[in-house]
Structure formats: structure tokens, C-alpha cells
Fold:
Amino acid sequence: MVHTDCMIYPGSFTNQVAVVTGAGQGIGFEIARQLAASGASVLLNDIDDTKASQAAEKINRQGICHAMVGDAADIDFIRQMINEAVKRFGKLTIAVANAGITLYGDFFSYQPEALKEVMRVNLHGSFFLAQAATLQMKKQREGGSILLMSSVTGHQAHKDLAAYGMTKAALEMLAKTLVIELSPFNISINAIAPGATKTERTAEDAQYEKTWSRITPAGRPATVEDIANAALFMVSPASRHITGQTLIIDGGWTSVSPSPD
Structure:
């Protein structure tokens, strides 16, 4: 996948420090890359050692990035990430809870273990990353930005994704609710909700791009750059008066919502 240089916010993230979870590839990688290319120091997390180290190596050609391998849903590891970011870069100003999993399954036969794991990664991990990050930001008294990763499935029903969609809708409510606690400390919290997006994972489906191009009003699925561009806006100084909101990036799909074949 070819990644072009980020030109949207050149220099806008100078002296900023970000933690991005689940960023070994795909959307998370591109968010981390664009942040680093725009001046931020980035702690990139992935549970896969090879993906994390290779991603950080690529990003270090354009900026500053340190890889940290571990489970982004484990609270002890989450706290270690925050501490490492502060130790290495001096502070923390941005946290992007990108790590998540999708476990498809028919509702009538969905298993408790699958539901627990989707909840653990998507909700538990995001909730406690937001908590740990904002505790650090409160100490610093400089404000900051939290970004949660929702999905269009949190807005529109999608077959075999009841559990996943439920967690994504919950993250949007978390962003809305935490406005009360975080605003007094000049910390914004928002979510983005990507629709169909071309990534390394979706590239495994030979019909993916064709199918979503047909049913998306804009005529194509998103690229990772499309999603990362929106993410950077939501954590940038340009959005400092936006908090508790969710930005849908789906080429208009939720307006019409046809299901793929």
C-alpha cells in the first residue's frame, strides 16, 4: 500500500506526543504515520511484534515513532504505555484508541466467549486507555485530545455484527458522556466512525472494492488516508471546540445503507 506524505497539517503536531493502539497496519498505522509526519512523537502499539516493529521502522523515516508490543485491552499494559510515552517523550497530549476486533457471528448461535472478547478489546481497552491518558493529561495541566474508533455499524444494522456494532455504539456514548468529566481540564474526546475501508485485511476479499464501490454513493470505499485525515482533524488544534461528537467517514453509505451481497 502506497502512503503519500501528509500535507494537511504540516507542523501542526510539533511538540505533541501521541499513543496510537492497534497501529501495526491499516487505519491505525496511517494515523500514526500522519501524526509523526506532522511533527508529533508517536508511541505505536500493536499486539503483533513483527507488525509493530516494521510499522515503527517505516514511520521513523518520516518522524519519531517508538513501537511497544502488547495487549491494548490489558489495563496494566495500558498504564505501561502511558508511562513509557511520558518517560520517552516527556508528556502525553493525544491518545487514539484504535485497537479493536471484529468477530462475525449469527446472533442465535453467538458464543459467550466471543462476546466477552469483543467487549474486552473494543470497550474495556478503549475505556481504560481513555482513563489512563486523561489522568496523565490532568497532571500536566495542558489539556489534550482523546479519539475513540467507532464504526458505521454503530449507526446501521449489519448482518452478523450485532456484538461488534453494539460495542461501537457504546464508544460513541462514552465520548458523549466523558465531555462532563474532561472538559474542565481542557481535554476533548471524540470518535470517528469509518465505513468500508481498503486495508490489508479487506484486500483479502477479491470482491471487496467492487462491492463497496457499487453500494457507496461516493463510488468507492475509503482509503486509510481518508480515515486518518479525519482522525488528525479531530485531534488537531483546528477542532479544539469540538468534543463529545462522532464523525462518520463512509462516502455517504449510512444515508442509504444498502447491504453488501
Residues 1-7 have pLDDT under 50 and may be disordered. Helices lie at 26-37, 49-59, 75-89, 112-140, 162-182, 208-215, 224-235, 253-256. Residues 112-140 form the longest helix (29 residues).
